[in-house]
Design brief:
heterodimer, A: 284 residues, mainly alpha, MetI-like fold, two-stranded antiparallel ribbon, 14 helices, 2 strands, B: 366 residues, alpha+beta, Rossmann fold, OB fold (Dihydrolipoamide Acetyltransferase, E2P), 2 domains, six-stranded mixed sheet, five-stranded antiparallel sheet, 10 helices, 19 strands, 26% helix, elongated
């Protein structure tokens, strides 16, 4: 009987091991689909131009100088700074305006509040490309074409951001607002001292999404910007396309350097992102 | 001066629901008044109207010399303790208590003094750097009380502050709040659904039902002279026993008859119930006045034959659940006597402790 039980225990262990192994293999396989393009990009950035596109992934000799050449071929540092500048301002303003709107939609009571919110939410159904021409016409009228303000202002408001933060704020008990009111807080002070600090995971989530989204934005800057010195990185990288063909190795080096801010931001804030995505999904 | 006067106060919501109807009450300076009633009776709504967290549909509320109908909560000089504590989770205990004072522009020295004084009163000096999530329920409630104390308001408002605590902590906090009232002497308005809290803490109790005040009285008066059947059944644990029966004339006397037993109406109650002669009536008697050692001492007391359903020994007394005819009732009996399930016995009633209620209006006739 004991031997039979021991054998059963071993069979159970084996089954569990096979199941875990299978799961890990599946996860490794899926991870590869995400990691391999990145690895290919890094290795290509270290190749001489003539080796780009060949079957062997590894360069015959590592061309670390490609990373310096990028700065000589295009005004890379200027494009870099422009992208960070615009993305940072958009992130700050979008988080600020979204949090204010979310506060109004979740904590304040005014006639038609919920109807207005749903109408506002409905605007998310409109594709960005459909809005591009009317937005461009508004920028012309406001004399904001080919300006940083023209990139920043239209992107400073976000329905998604408002929705995300509203969901967070709905999880905060209204008794906190009431306690703060009795303590002597105005609506602004309730927002600043009570509600906003409690929305930290949501604010960080929105910061990450907004920064990464805007940093990678290509079409709107392409439409809006005429002056080369104002170009952002996604447009600046087009310079690697010339009449002689595409300098893919330099392009990959530039791309590798351009993702650094996003990676840093994500690494620093990732635990808040996970918490933010979880907590934001409570009640509507 | 922190008298609170509520005059004809009504609250009607947008959908037409009347949560509070013609609420009239004068709360004296320094009084501890308890609003008690079942869920949905309007007690919290009334408290929130005093706080300014709900608009008043009609009537006036006066705190001190001022009518405060349109005054913002922060300007009413009140402090409130919430059922779920409502502590700011991202602030320490010290910061929670100091927040209101900081908003009002008090100096750091004054804030520190008030917070330390309040912490000393509540025995919380060692907790000032903790955050709410590190505290137990009782400690959190004490912080909530401390946050109210530092404000030195004219009126303290408590909205079911002990509901989220376990039974033992509830007893402890009840004593602490009562002690606080003795120390501070400030007017306190306390809302609860627990009649034991109401009876043990209040100078006066306001019982509410369906948005209306049923009775306002001190605890003993409320217990011994309930104005209607609802109050009689709500106050007291276990609740008062009710027997539906008939009032019959026996010469000059009146006799209550409910099928299972008959009880002569005491002479001093006859005139009060005379209008119900030959009609239905409800008799009420508290468990401690039926079958108790005191009741059994009277050899001439009327007796009720009954069958034992269940017996619950509580130590100091035994609650015996009995049945007679169609009626189930509870008697608080001698703890040294044991009773078997199904045993038949007769229990003595104290006639002087009877209450009679109109079966249609539920008003207490005696």
């Amino acid at each position: 009987m004991t031997e039979q039980l021991a054998a059963l225990k071993t069979a159970d262990d084996l089954r569990r091991f096979v199941k875990t192994l299978g799961l890990h293999l599946l996860l490794v396989g899926v991870s590869m689909t995400f990691i391999l393009p990145f690895v290919w990009m890094l290795l290509t950035s270290l190749k001489p131009l003539k080796e780009v596109g060949l079957e062997n992934w590894l360069p015959s000799s590592f061309q670390w100088g490609n990373y310096l050449t990028v700065f000589n071929v295009i005004p890379f540092s200027m494009f870099y700074w422009n992208s960070i500048f615009v993305a940072s301002w958009v992130t700050f303003l979008q988080v600020f305006t979204s949090s204010l709107a979310a506060f109004s939609f979740s904590r304040l009571h005014w006639p038609g509040r919920d109807r207005v919110f749903f109408l506002y939410l409905a605007t998310m159904m409109l594709p960005g490309l459909v809005m591009m021409i009317p937005n461009y016409q508004i920028m012309i009228k406001l004399n904001l074409v080919d300006s940083y303000a023209g990139l920043i202002i239209p992107a400073s408001f976000s329905t998604f951001g408002t929705f995300l933060l509203r969901q967070f704020m709905l999880t905060i008990p209204s008794s906190l607002d009431e306690a703060a009111e009795i303590d002597g807080a105005s609506h602004w002070q309730v927002y600043l001292n009570v509600v906003l600090p409690l929305c930290r995971p949501g604010l960080i989530t929105l910061t990450i999404f907004t920064f990464i989204g805007n940093y990678q934005s290509f079409f709107w800057p392409l439409v809006m910007l005429k002056s080369v010195h104002k170009y952002t990185l996604p447009i600046g990288l087009l310079f690697f396309d010339s009449s002689q063909g595409q300098e893919t190795n330099l392009l990959m080096a530039a791309v590798a350097m351009s993702v650094i801010p996003m990676v840093v931001l994500f690494v620093l804030l990732q635990k808040h992102l996970v918490k933010g995505i979880q907590l934001g999904s409570v009640k509507g | 001066m922190s008298k609170v006067i509520l005059q004809d106060v009504c609250k009607v919501y947008d959908n037409g629901f009347k949560a509070v109807k013609n609420f009239n009450l004068v709360i004296e300076d320094g009084e501890f008044i308890v609003l008690v009633g079942p869920s949905g009776c309007g007690k919290s709504t009334t408290l929130r109207m005093v706080a300014g967290l709900e608009d008043i549909s009609s009537g006036t509320i006066q705190i001190g010399e001022r009518v405060v109908n349109t005054v913002a909560p922060k300007d009413r000089d009140i402090a409130m303790v919430f059922q779920n504590y409502a502590l700011y989770p991202h602030m320490t205990v010290y910061e929670n208590m100091a927040f209101g004072l900081k908003l009002r522009g008090y100096s750091k020295a004054e804030i520190n003094k008030r917070v330390m004084d309040a912490a000393a009163v509540l025995g919380m000096e060692g907790l000032l750097e903790e955050r709410p999530k590190q505290l137990s329920g009782g400690q959190r409630q004490r912080v909530a009380v401390g946050r109210a104390i530092v404000r030195k308001p004219q009126v303290f408002l408590f909205d079911e502050p002990l509901s989220n605590l376990d039974a033992k902590m509830r007893v402890q906090m009840r004593i602490e709040i009562s002690r606080l009232h003795s120390q501070l002497g400030t007017t306190m308005i306390y809302v609860t659904h627990d009649q034991i809290e109401a009876m043990t803490m209040g100078d006066r109790i306001v019982i509410m039902e369906d948005g209306l005040i049923q009775q306002v009285a001190d605890p003993i008066t409320l217990y011994e002279q309930p104005a209607n059947k609802f109050i009689a059944g709500f106050i007291g644990s276990p609740a008062m026993n009710f027997f539906a029966g008939h009032l019959a004339a026996r010469g000059d006397a009146l006799e209550f008859n409910c099928g299972g037993f008959q009880v002569a109406v005491p002479a001093d109650m006859r005139s009060a119930v005379a209008a119900r002669r030959d009609k239905s009536i409800i008799m009420g008697i508290r468990p401690e006045h039926i079958g108790s050692p005191v009741a059994e001492q009277d050899a001439g007391a009327p007796r009720v034959p009954a069958k034992v359903e269940i017996s619950e020994p509580m130590g100091g007394e035994t609650y015996v659940y009995l049945q007679t005819g169609n009626h189930n009732f509870i008697a608080k009996m001698d703890p040294h006597r044991s009773h078997r399930m199904g045993e038949t016995l007769s229990v003595a009633i104290m006639p002087s402790k009877l209450h009679f209620f109109d079966p249609i209006t539920s008003v207490c006739l005696t």
